[in-house]
Amino acid sequence: MSIQTARRMNQARRSFVREILKAAAKSEVISFAGGLPSNDLIPVAQVANAVQEILATEGAKALQYCTAEGHPALRQWVADQYRAAGLSVSPDQVLIISGSQQGFDLIGKVLLEPGDAIIVEDPTYIAALQSFGLFEPSMLAVPMDQEGIQMDSLRPVIHGAKLLYTMPSFQNPTGISYSAARRAEVTNLLRDTSVVLVEDDPYSLLSFDGRTIPPMASQLPDRTILLGTFSKFLAPGLRLGWICAPMELMEKLTIAKQALDLCSENLGQWVIHRLLSSPDFSSYLQTVRATYARNCRAMRAAVKRHLPDAQCTDPAGGMFVWLTLPPDVSALDLFHTAIEKGVAFVPGQAFFANGGGENTLRLNFTRCGPETIEDGIARLGAAYRSLACY
Amino acid sequence: MSIQTARRMNQARRSFVREILKAAAKSEVISFAGGLPSNDLIPVAQVANAVQEILATEGAKALQYCTAEGHPALRQWVADQYRAAGLSVSPDQVLIISGSQQGFDLIGKVLLEPGDAIIVEDPTYIAALQSFGLFEPSMLAVPMDQEGIQMDSLRPVIHGAKLLYTMPSFQNPTGISYSAARRAEVTNLLRDTSVVLVEDDPYSLLSFDGRTIPPMASQLPDRTILLGTFSKFLAPGLRLGWICAPMELMEKLTIAKQALDLCSENLGQWVIHRLLSSPDFSSYLQTVRATYARNCRAMRAAVKRHLPDAQCTDPAGGMFVWLTLPPDVSALDLFHTAIEKGVAFVPGQAFFANGGGENTLRLNFTRCGPETIEDGIARLGAAYRSLACY
After folding, report:
1. Which of B12, B64, B235 lies closest to A63 in CB terms?
2. Which CATH number fits domain B44-277: 2.40.30.10, 3.40.50.2300, 1.20.1250.20, 3.40.640.10?
3. Alpha-carbon distance B8 to A387, whole Å?
4. What's the pTM value of the predicted model, to 2 decimals?
C-alpha cells in the first residue's frame, strides 16, 4: 500500500534548472546554465584563514548552536548596508537564514493561506515559484518590459493580492533592472492596498559600476520584506543569506525559523562576518564586479557575432543575459542541439509561471571567462544554424 | 494597517526552551537546560585541520552549491551505518539536511494536511511539536512508561492517525529507551494500519556501552522515516543531519528540500565526512560515550543525595535525565527559585503536548563535568528545600 502524500505536493516538480545542471555537468560541456559565482573568485584562501582564526579564538563556541536570529554582528552588517543605501532598519529586523531561498518558505509560512494570490514577474525566478507553490497560492504572472513590471498589467490585478514578488535589480532571469520611475510607480500603487512587497535582491552588490540603488523598501518600509544573500558575492556553499522585514512580522518569522531548523550554520556566519570586516573586502568586491562586467560585455559581443537573430538584454549587473529568438524558434529544441555541440543554457519557458517564452533563453556569464564565453557562444551559434536547417 | 498573517501561525509560540536558555545564559548560572554537546568534546582542532585539507584539495568546489540530495559519500556513510545496525537501505534513500530538525518540516510538507492526526509520546521533543504544529495537525499525546509508549493507550487511537512520532532510543526529554519487546509491539500494531512511523534517533551513537539497537525501521521498512543528526556527537553549529525514507517518498522529499533551501551547507558536509573517515573517529566516539556515561552517573548520584524526594530515570545513553517531584511541587516555581540560586533546567510541562507534567523536569548532563554537576544539583537541592519552606 503506497503512502498517501499531501495535496500541496501534487503539482510540485523537480527543479527544471537543477535537472538541466545535471545534463550540463559533463566536463566537455561549456555551461551557461547555472547561477553560480566564478570558482576563480570564491575567496578560498580567505575562508581557510578565517576558519583557522575563528576556531583558534572562539573554539567550540563557533561550532555550537547559534541563536535562531543569527550572529549579531552579521545582522548589524546587513542593517548597516541598508542604512548606507537609504533604508533605515534595525538589526532586530534582520534574521540570518540558510540562503535567501529559505526566505520564501518563511514568508509562505507566516503569510500565505491556500488560494492567496501572489503576483510574480513574468518571467521570474523559478525556485521562488517552486517554494511559494507549496503553500498552494494562485500565481498571477505580470509581464515585464525594459523598465520592470508593466504597470498597465499590474494595476487591474493588484487589489486582493496578498504578495507582489519582485526582483528589481538585475533580475533573474532577464538581467533587467527597474527604473527609478517604475520603482516609484509600483510602491505608490501598493501604498493604497494591503499587498506585501517581497523585494528579492540577491545581486545588487554585483552592480558593474558599484552604484547601489535604494531598495524599493525605502519607499514602502512598513510593507516590504527584503531578501538578500551572501551566496552570489562570497560563497554559495556556506548557505547563508538574510530576511529583513517590518518589525511586526519579526516575532512570527523567528518562530518559523526556529521550527524549521533551530538556527543557521554557526561557523559560516563567523567566517562571513570576518570576510566582510576585512580591509580587503572592498577591493575584492571591485574585482568581482569588474570581472563580471567584462564577462557580460564579452557575452553580448559574442551573441551579436554568432547569434545575430537574437535580441539580448543589456544588464548593468547580476549574473544573466536574456535572449529572445525569432518567434518560431524553440529554445528547448535549441537546448538539445546545443548540448550535442557542447554548450548548455536554460530554456526560458521554465521561468514563466503560466507558460510562454518558448523562444527565450537565459545565459549565465559569471561562471566562465571571456575565451570560454566566445567558444561557448560560437557553439551555440552553430547549434542555432543547424537547427534552422531542419 | 497591520499585515494579516496566516492561520497556521496563530498557535505558534517561541520555543520555551530557547527562552529558558536565554535566562540560563548568564555566566554565573550552571545550566542543565540545553541539549548541547560538551564544548570540551567538540573536535575543534580536527575541524580546523579538515577545513584546511579540504580547501587545499577541493578548492572552490567545496564552497559552491551542493546537490539537493547532499554529498554522496556522506549519504553512503549513513546507509552503511544503518546496514551495520540491521537495516538495509540504499544511499538513494538518504537526504542530507540542515539538522534533523529540518526533517520535521520536510515530513510535514510531503505528508500532512491540516487536521491530520499525529500521535506523539507524552512527554516528547518540544521542537517537533513546534515544527509539525505549523501544518495544523491534531496532536494525540500517548503516555510513556519505562519501556516506551504505552500500548493500551496507543491501540485505541492508532487507526486513522497519519503519523506516529517516536524517539525510541534515549528519548528527549526522559532518557527512556524502548525495550525490544515494546519496539516489536509498536511495529506489529502499525503493520495493519496506514500509519507512517517517524523514528527520530539523534542519540543512538551516544549509547553509553556502545551497543546499538536495530532501528524500529528494520521491522517496518516500507513505512518508517528515520531522522538522524551529526549535531549530538560532532558539532551542532555545522547544522547537518539526515532523513532516510522509503524509496517511494524520496522524489517528493527531494523536491521539498530543493524548494526549502536548494541544498545544505557544502563545506560542512565535506568536513563531517572527513571526521567520520578518520582512523581516530571510533576512539573519539568512545571518549564521548565514556564522558557522558560518567556525567550521567554523577548526576544521578547527586540527585539522590540532594533531591531525595525526586524520582530520576536511568538512561543508558543520550543527554538527559528526567525527574519527577512529589505531585504537589511545581517545577516552574522551582525553576524561578533555582535561577536565583544559580542553576537552570527545563520545567517538564513544556514537553507535554496537551498539558500536565507540572511536577517534572529535564536535566542535561552533557554540558558540565562531574564537579559542576555536583555543585549545580546541590544548588537545585537548596532551591527545592527553600521552596518547601513557603
Report:
1. B235
2. 3.40.640.10
3. 51
4. 0.96
